[in-house]
Design goal:
By secondary structure, this protein is mostly beta strands. It folds into 3 domains: 2-74, SH3 type barrels (Roll); 78-153, SH3 type barrels, CATH 2.30.30; 154-266, Roll (SH3 type barrels), CATH 2.30.30. The chain has strands spanning 2-5, 9-12, 26-29, 34-43, 47-52, 63-67, 71-74, 78-82, 86-89, 103-106, 111-120, 124-129, 141-145, 149-153, 155-160, 164-167, 181-184, 189-198, 202-207, 219-223, 227-232. The chain starts with a strand and ends in a 34-residue tail after the last strand. 33% of the residues are buried.
């Protein structure tokens, strides 16, 4: 995954106004700068928390907060195309039941890159836009009426929904040495290249980008109830205008909702 800066901005050590921070707690980052990232999450004050993969900024810091409208998160592309004039909504209900601030008109032919999507009630799909913010409150999570949109592309994202340990073997963490497990906090998000259910209610996952731990290991085992895997795996092509809703990754979708609120390595 990458983060691209789309407006001159400040990366900060806390999700606060830059005026509330000392010079050592912020660093200027120029428009169009790109960084490889391990993971990301939404944070307070319309910020995104970033864990840089291959470099540090400031005083050798890898974890930074950026003002969300100033950046784009770029993952393997899953794209939503609007195929009929429609309204994006904050709830999967009739638009007439919503305040004007809770819906946004989107024209036929508009395209968005997605961070993730999941089926929702009443033939809707819940989408997280990767690089756009709509409406008066700059929101990137919306519900769309499924027959009005088409979703294509291939990407799979793992989100941690309960503090957990990634392990090198699918066994109890007490059976592993400290070098065979790594703590991962609620909300951490990773792009995956592979995932499959295995014994012991675990999921084998292969991270698509930089690995974790001192050895930059990409293949780990996660306890299934602690994660959700979502996205558009290769071969899953929701039909244009069909009544079928797009499917989450079938091998590892678990019954808790995931909202990006990551904290990793800190």
């Amino acid at each position: 995954m990458k983060v691209k800066v789309i407006s001159d901005t400040l990366f900060k050590l806390s999700p606060k106004l830059s005026s509330e921070l000392s010079n050592s707690e912020k660093v200027f980052v120029k428009n169009q700068t790109e960084f490889e990232i391990i993971s990301y999450t939404e944070a307070d004050g319309n910020h995104t928390r970033l864990v840089l993969a291959n470099q540090t900024l400031g005083n050798n810091q890898r974890i930074w907060y950026a003002y969300s409208p100033d950046i784009e998160i770029q993952t393997s592309p899953v794209q939503l195309t609007v195929i009929s004039d429609t309204l994006f909504k904050q709830q999967p209900i009739l638009s007439s039941q919503l305040a004007d601030s809770d819906k946004a008109f989107v024209q036929n032919g508009t395209e968005f890159d997605l961070q993730s999507y999941l089926p929702a009630a009443s033939n809707h799909v819940k989408v997280a836009l990767a690089n756009k913010f709509l409406g008066p409150y700059n929101r990137n999570t919306w519900y769309a009426y499924q027959p009005d949109v088409e979703i294509t592309g291939s990407a799979v994202t793992l989100r941690v929904i309960s503090d957990t340990l990634f392990k090198l073997r699918p066994v109890l963490s007490s059976q592993l040495s400290s070098s065979e497990k790594i703590f991962v906090k609620t909300g951490t998000a990773f792009e995956l290249s592979e995932n499959e259910k295995v014994a012991g209610n675990h999921v084998r996952v292969v991270l698509a980008n930089t690995g974790l731990g001192p050895g930059n290991i990409k293949e780990w085992y996660a306890y299934a109830p602690d994660i959700v895997v979502e996205g558009n795996p290769a071969g899953n092509n929701p039909g244009q205008g069909s009544s079928a809703q797009p499917q989450p990754v079938p091998v590892a979708v678990f019954p808790k909702a995931a909202i990006l609120s990551m904290a990793l390595f800190g």
